[in-house]
Design a protein that fits this description.
With 300 residues, the chain is mainly α. The protein is built from 15 helices and no strands. 68% of the residues lie in helices and 0% in strands.
Length: 300
């Protein structure tokens, strides 16, 4: 990272660390704090990563700040890793563009599962890039660990893996792909066993028990409007337009484009029968930022 972008990242991190002590825990945060006091491989409606992050800082004096601090630090680390991928001359403006995106800039202020999903989405593309550049045991294990952490964060993370395979079907012909798959399944097995022991309550809740609703043009308009707003308060539709326009030149870029557009299309189709929560498309914005800000010159 350039000096200017690093200083900006540090200053915003310090500001966020000061802000998180100034308001009480939301109901959801208190709910996840209870999770952290009873660590398990799964919970009623979420995997355990949110609880693990809260628990990791439980040695600090108990307060709203100690519950949220891990999320602020992981958010800044994720944005720092993203920024480091941009051309040096564009890193400051690229980072400021990220901070202008409401979804990416605010998720670190609350102790919610969306932040680990954001962090491990960034790490997923980082490890995927390493694996595609050099397919060795080190990068196979690294990619497996990140995929498992992504799934332990939020189930939506599986969409990134799915759209990567859709973008790079040749992976199915590689022996190493099956090594990554088998290792990932083995590491995720404790959660599967937890689901079995608890009558698959999380899966039943998300796929069978969540209320469905009839198609609504208003809900559809709200969905697309939010995706434009989330792409940046001062750049709006531009990143999405550029994502559509960009011609990919390698497997990694193709995986980014498929993931960005694929996640949005997936939840667009889902919105026909149920209300989509605004934060569900978060992984798409990681791919969007990575692709657009590494392929398009922000400064000349």
């Amino acid at each position: 990272m350039t000096r200017a972008s690093l200083i900006t990242l540090i200053l915003i991190t310090l500001l966020n660390l000061a802000m998180i002590a100034g308001f009480e825990l939301a109901h959801d945060e208190a709910y996840y704090w209870i999770f952290s006091n009873n660590l398990a491989f799964g919970y009623f409606d979420h995997p355990p990563m949110v609880a693990i992050i809260i628990r990791a800082f439980s040695w600090l004096p108990h307060s709203e700040w100690s519950v949220r601090v891990g999320f602020v630090l992981l958010q800044s680390l994720a944005i720092g890793i993203l920024t480091a991928q941009f051309p040096k001359k564009d890193q400051l403006w690229g980072q400021l563009a990220i901070w202008s995106m409401p979804l990416l800039s605010t998720i670190g202020l609350l102790a919610l599962p969306d932040l680990p999903l954001f962090f491990f989405s960034v790490m997923y593309f980082w490890s995927l890039k390493k694996y595609l550049e050099l397919d060795n045991l080190k990068h196979q294990v690294l990619l497996s660990l990140i995929i498992v952490a992504l799934l332990y964060s939020k189930y939506h993370g599986i969409l990134l893996v799915f759209f990567t395979l859709l973008a790079i079907p040749s992976l199915l012909k590689k022996r190493s792909f099956y090594i990554v798959t088998i290792l990932s399944v083995l590491l995720f097995l404790p959660h599967v066993i937890w689901q079995y022991d608890h009558d698959y309550k999380t899966l039943r809740y998300h796929f069978l028990e969540r209320p469905k609703s009839q198609f609504s043009w208003g809900r559809l308009g709200e969905y697309f409007g939010l995706q434009i707003i989330f792409a940046g308060l001062w750049i709006g539709f531009w990143p999405w337009w550029k994502t559509i326009q960009i011609k990919t030149h390698n497997h990694f870029e193709r995986a980014l484009k498929f993931s960005a557009l694929g996640v949005i299309i997936f939840f667009f189709i889902s919105s026909f029968s149920k209300r989509i929560e605004a934060n569900w498309t978060l992984p798409a914005f990681v791919a969007l930022v990575w692709l657009v800000f590494t392929k398009v010159e922000l400064t000349k």
